[in-house]
Amino acid sequence: MPDLIPIDDPNDPRVAAYRDIKERDLVGRQGLFIAEGETVLAAFVRDAPQRVQSLLIDGKRIDKLGEVLAGLPPGVPVHVAGQAVLDAIAGFHLHRGVLAVGAKPKPLSAEALLAGVGPRAVVLVLMGIANHDNLGGIFRNAAAFGVDGVILDGDCCDPFYRKAIRVSIGATLSVPTAGLAPGEDLVALLARHGFQALALSPGARETLAELDPPARAAVLLGAEGPGLSKTVMDRARTIGIPMANGFDSLNVATTSGIVLHHLRFAKR
Amino acid sequence: MPDLIPIDDPNDPRVAAYRDIKERDLVGRQGLFIAEGETVLAAFVRDAPQRVQSLLIDGKRIDKLGEVLAGLPPGVPVHVAGQAVLDAIAGFHLHRGVLAVGAKPKPLSAEALLAGVGPRAVVLVLMGIANHDNLGGIFRNAAAFGVDGVILDGDCCDPFYRKAIRVSIGATLSVPTAGLAPGEDLVALLARHGFQALALSPGARETLAELDPPARAAVLLGAEGPGLSKTVMDRARTIGIPMANGFDSLNVATTSGIVLHHLRFAKR
């Protein structure tokens, strides 16, 4: 059990990283992020304990958090405050009552990510996913189905944004994630590493259900509405999920779940 | 093209149904509901035109809505206002700029719903889905995969709540929906109609991927966290989706999409 540090003054410099959370969500935190809630914190401590910098928790929750606190590396400060002090620090009513500051992992290139996976692998490539709910939902599915990594283009939102972390139930903190460099030729990069590029698109001619999963699959997902660019689609294998009676399309996070389930469990 | 009724006074009695939307979301609307946004309105007019009671739209959007307005039955009033008047009526900034008042369909019993479907059918049974995002997401998938109906127990939230409609992209307005009467024996009801009850549960021994879809399938989904009750699970066939490395579970809407895709397209 770590030492608990009582905090009575919202302006205590030891909790400066937790101050005015929403304002600082907008300007960013230079290599740090805030995670919130018991479930997310449990996932964070389980999956990436070395990146937990500190905790700030409501004193009432210490008992429920026993197992999580026991999993912390030695020396991680755990600040404890009452609800009123917590709210004053955060700048809003913090009904989840549990916060952590974490360090983002070192940036990873898509090249390095692809070079590091095994002979059978699934990666997701997200292009223009700018909605935190969708991004978080996709990462949740990525963790649930054990994907080997997620590659984000420059038009995706930040997976370390508080809401994306929350929706992913902490999966954005542990799933290996890489950025696509501007101008990088994605399809060539994937081909070089033996990945088949599967571009999900409502207008595709091949259906997911008929797809025999390749040994190395890269699932390309674009934003709802615009979808993937023609440049990418023209050079990838397009795969669709047929819809009933003229329904337009599935939510992109749901699509990721359906595709990952198929890739992992499809009968051959 | 219907006649357009200009509205200049937020207190005009002709738009009383649109007043103070958020407050009235909470108290309910006695058989009516509010739908918002172009995509939802298009789905509503396409799928259930006879239940559109009136529209209130931002004058700037008339051109974009041409096809939708042309699909309205004769006599449906279309009120047109500027953004400031719209905002004053609704009581908040209405950036979607398009509202409709609709009539809920007549309540349908689960018995009647099941009696009315064909020999091959899929229905969803939702138990305790109290989150509008999840409920809306499930209905979106239900429409996308053409399910024959959705049965809700008394612990589900209202599918005609504004947010549920929006997340479902209007699917809650058209997918046949029935309520489960309090104390009704769901599993017996399903069996009487030849439906196999498939209870989705992380702890199940059978996996979805191995499931040979029955001719009539009822997919039972409970809330994330508590899940389905033991009483129901003990009498149903439990089906699970295996998770990677100790990940707890999928989002329930995503689960519905994966299950429906399998039931519809699984190779035999």
Describe this entry's structure for a reader.
The structure is a homodimer of 268-residue chains. With 268 residues, the first copy, chain A, is an alpha/beta fold. The first copy, chain A, folds into 2 domains: 4-103, Ribosomal protein L30/S12 (60s Ribosomal Protein L30, Chain: A); 110-265, Alpha/beta knot (3-Layer(aba) Sandwich). Chain A is built from 10 helices and 12 strands. Chain A has helices at 21-27, 38-47, 66-70, 83-90, 110-115, 132-144, 162-167, 186-192, 230-235, 252-265; strands at 4-6, 32-36, 52-58, 78-81, 98-103, 121-127, 149-152, 177-179, 196-200, 206-207, 216-222, 237-240. In chain A, helix 6 runs parallel beside helix 10 (252-265). The termini of chain A are far apart. Chain A binds chain B through residues 133, 137, 140-141, 143-146, 169, 171, 207-209, 241-245, 247-251, 253-255, 257-258, 261-262, 265-267, and chain B through 133, 137, 140-141, 143-146, 169, 171, 207-209, 241-245, 247-251, 253-255, 257-258, 261-262, 265-267.
The description of the largest β-sheet of chain A is:
7 strands, parallel
Largest interface, C-beta closer than 8 angstroms, per-chain residues? A-B, 33 and 33 residues
Determine the CATH superfamily of the largest domain in chain A: SPOUT methyltransferase, trefoil knot domain
How far apart the termini of chain A lie comes to 49 Å
CATH class identity of the largest domain in chain A? Alpha Beta
Helix content of chain A: 25-40%
What is the second-level CATH architecture of the largest domain in chain A?
Answer: 3-Layer(aba) Sandwich
User: Could you report the average pLDDT of chain A, rounded to the nearest whole number?
Assistant: 94
- How large is the count of helical segments of chain A? 10
Keywords (chains A, B): Methyltransferase, Transferase
Protein name (chains A, B): tRNA G18 (Ribose-2'-O)-methylase SpoU
Pfam families (chains A, B): SpoU_methylase
